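Title: Comparing notes on inverse folding

I've been comparing how different people in this forum approach sequence design from structure. To keep things fair, I'm posting one structure and asking everyone to reply with a full sequence. Here's the target:
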C-alpha cells in the first residue's frame, strides 16, 4: 500500500528538530490532526519488496563494511541499496519518514523526538547491547578553566540536537542541579560540532566516537563526564512501519546478519577497525579505540527494554524538552509481528 506524505508530515518532521530546542512547545492544530494511512496487514513470515533500503551514518557501519547482508538478500531475489551517509540519527529518521530508508540504526533519543513530533511511520525493531559509555563525553580543552559539569552554566555547548548527545548533556546537567536552559546550546551536526570545538568557536563539545577518538589523539582534552550510567540503552535499530508489516522475513534476515557481524566486531576489534577504515577514512589505530569502546551485538525488544526507553522519554518530557508525554509502546510492532522479525538468538 502506498503511503502518502503530505505537507503536514513534512511540517511534523521539521518539528522533530524544533522540539530539541530548549523550552516547552505546544502542538499546533495541524499536528493534532495528524493522521496516518493504515498499513497493509501481512501475515508474518513473508515479504513483498524486491529492494531494501538500508541507512548508514558518517560514523561508519560494520554491516555495510563487511557486506554481510548482500548474499542473504540476493538468494531471496532482493537488491540491497545503501542510503547515506547521514550525519546523525535525526537526519536518518527524516529520510525514513519520507520513505527513502527502510532500516537504520540510531541512538535512543531520535525515535523519541520523532514520536513527540507526531511521526508514526518510524518504529523500533531491535535494541543494542549496552556499552560502558566510554565512546561519548562532555569535553573541553585540557587547559580550559572549566573543571566540572557544574562549571558549564552560561557556557556555549555544541552538539547535535535530538541525538544521544542531547540526552547525555541533559542528564549530566541534572546531576548537578542544572538544566539545558542554563547553557548556551549550539546545535550542530557531529562533524560540525567537532570542527567548532577544534577551532575554539565553542568551549564545550558533547562528543561521540569516532570523532571523539580522533580528537583525543590530536589535541589535549579533558572529559568532564562520559556516558557511563547515562546512555545505557546504546540505541536501536529502527524501521519504516509499512516495510516491517509487509516484509517481516527481510527484517528478520537483516537482524540475523547484523547481530552476527556485531558479535564478530565485538570479539575482533582490530579486524573490525580495519574493515571500517575503508568506509570512514580514519586511521585504523583510531578506529580500533572506537571498536573497543563500542558494543554492536543486538538484543530483542523485551518489555524491560521498552520500559527503560520509556523512562528516557519521560525524562525529556519532565525537563520540557519535548512537548508532550509519549507512549514508546506505540512505536513497537505487535507481539505477533515482533516474534516474526526477531531472531531467536537475540533473546538471551
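Reply #1:
Here's my take.
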Amino acid at each position: 500500500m502506498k503511503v502518502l506524505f503530505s505537507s503536514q508530515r513534512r511540517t511534523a518532521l521539521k518539528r522533530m528538530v524544533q522540539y530539541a530546542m530548549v523550552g516547552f512547545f505546544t502542538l499546533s492544530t495541524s499536528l493534532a490532526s495528524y493522521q496516518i494511512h493504515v498499513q497493509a496487514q501481512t501475515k508474518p513470515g513473508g515479504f513483498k519488496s524486491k529492494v531494501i533500503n538500508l541507512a548508514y551514518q558518517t560514523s561508519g557501519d560494520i554491516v555495510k563494511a563487511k557486506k554481510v547482508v548482500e548474499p542473504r538478500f540476493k538468494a531471496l531475489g532482493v537488491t540491497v541499496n545503501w542510503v547515506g551517509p547521514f550525519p546523525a540519527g535525526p537526519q536518518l529518521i527524516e529520510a525514513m519518514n519520507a520513505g527513502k530508508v527502510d532500516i537504520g540504526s540510531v541512538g535512543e533519543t531520535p525515535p523519541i523526538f520523532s514520536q513527540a513530533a507526531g511521526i508514526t511511520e518510524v518504529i523500533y525493531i531491535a535494541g543494542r547491547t549496552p556499552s560502558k559509555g566510554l565512546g561519548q563525553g562532555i569535553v573541553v580543552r585540557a587547559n580550559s578553566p572549566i573543571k566540572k559539569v557544574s562549571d558549564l552554566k552560561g557556557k556555549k555547548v555544541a552538539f547535535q540536537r535530538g541525538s544521544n548527545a542531547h540526552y547525555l548533556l541533559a542528564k549530566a546537567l541534572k546531576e548537578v542541579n542544572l538544566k539545558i536552559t542554563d547553557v548556551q546550546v549550539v546545535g550542530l551536526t557531529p562533524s560540525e560540532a567537532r570542527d567548532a570545538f577544534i577551532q575554539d568557536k565553542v568551549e564545550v563539545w558533547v562528543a561521540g566516537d569516532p570523532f571523539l577518538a580522533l580528537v583525543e589523539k590530536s589535541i589535549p582534552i579533558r572529559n568532564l563526564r562520559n556516558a557511563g550510567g547515562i546512555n545505557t540503552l546504546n540505541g536501536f535499530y529502527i524501521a519504516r512501519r509499512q516495510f516491517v508489516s509487509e516484509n517481516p522475513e527481510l527484517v528478520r534476515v537483516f537482524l540475523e546478519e547484523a547481530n552476527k557481524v556485531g558479535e564478530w566486531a565485538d570479539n575482533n576489534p582490530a579486524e573490525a577497525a580495519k574493515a571500517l577504515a575503508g568506509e570512514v577514512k580514519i586511521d585504523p589505530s583510531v578506529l580500533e579505540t572506537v571498536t573497543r569502546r563500542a558494543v554492536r551485538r543486538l538484543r530483542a525488544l523485551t518489555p524491560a527494554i521498552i520500559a527503560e526507553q520509556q523512562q528516557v522519554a519521560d525524562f525529556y518530557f519532565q525537563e520540557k524538552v519535548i512537548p508532550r508525554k509519549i507512549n514508546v509502546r506505540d512505536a513497537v510492532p505487535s507481539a505477533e509481528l515482533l516474534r516474526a522479525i526477531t531472531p531467536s538468538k537475540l533473546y538471551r
